[in-house]
Amino acid sequence: MSQSERLVLATRYRLVSEIGQGANGIVWRAHDDLLDRAVAVKELRPPEELSESDRVVFYRRTLREARAPAALRSTSIVEVYDVVIEAGRPWIVMELIEAPSLEQLIERSGPLPAERVAHIGRRLLEALAVAHRAGIVHRDLKPSNVLLDGDRVVLTDFGLAFSSGSSSLTKTGHFMGSPAYVAPEVAAGEKATPRSDLWSLGATLYAALEGRPPFERENVMATLSALANESAPAPQNAGALGPVVTGLLEKNPTRRLTQARAADRLERAMTGPRSGRRARPPRYRMMVVIGLIGATVASCGIGATALVVGMMREGSGPSPTAAAGSAPAASSSAAPAGAADSTLVIRARDAGCKIFVSVPGTRLTVLSNETLSVGTARQYGQPRLNAVVYDAAACEVWVNGKEQPAGTPGQRKSYTVQKASS
Predict the structure, then answer these.
(1) 277 in a domain, yes or no?
(2) 142 is in an annotated binding site
């Protein structure tokens, strides 16, 4: 048993066994004798070569690492319980999460399925949103700082985090963060912002999908060079997550996905097509205003100041202008006699062929407002006409002798036509 394992911190936190270690310290499994619960304790060991002033900065950063998550409340952010100074070193007491990191999972199993990566991304976005609302930027989001405890995703290690109200503890000329996951603007010397965290999130999701970060090279300098000079490669395993990852890896921070837009896109990727929902009613766009009506038209119930407006469902059927020049569709019967000389002809193919035909002008002249019997045709020779067909599948329409494409059941079509010049 090592000397550290025999330690009891602040007379209550008894170290049990080592969980893991990194460049600046060791994480221990421990027991809180006062509250009788298991905890994790992070022992910070500053490098031996640090000067006294640098050691002070190191300790201050440790306290900041504890304060940052302690001020936040989210199930996706590790909970910090206490900070202890013992044996000349700082120790951070936090909740014990006995789960692998995202980095360990990638190393063990390779790239993760897009569905799981989407879930991880959504939880990390929530954690970042909580931190950013509190004015805290993490600055070191990467797979090793993400723990996966079943469906719970936990962001840890706020050692490089800073808040808008705290002074910077980064020395000039010292690169802080992980080169493979740092935002390009931060690598170039600019101040980290919430959008820098979003870049790091994009690089983390890319690594989860592809098994490696987007700009990782053989050494730090090569990685930073690629980050500065190369475009982010498109992920090959992203599926519906592709636009999310590429949007987060936009090098220009002002064009990078915001937290809200990234969350929306992730939700869409997670839920997929809404196949079980009722179809939305068709959207309609305004086609043409026929004109102001000068008098009440009793036969169609239109008020004196109303506007008669043609409507066309978006994405279906030709526009009125295009309809006049369209090739004729196959017809079950020949055109009515005189159709070639008429401006407009409408014939009922099936029951339900309801039409409204008018002559535009300051005073509206209504020619037809009726439902035609099957086989019945109406012909109009006026130089200018407006028409509405309420069920395009039930009516056959000829404009200047040319049959118009049939519509779909229940589709409303409108026509604004002018007599062809002879």
Answers:
(1) no
(2) no
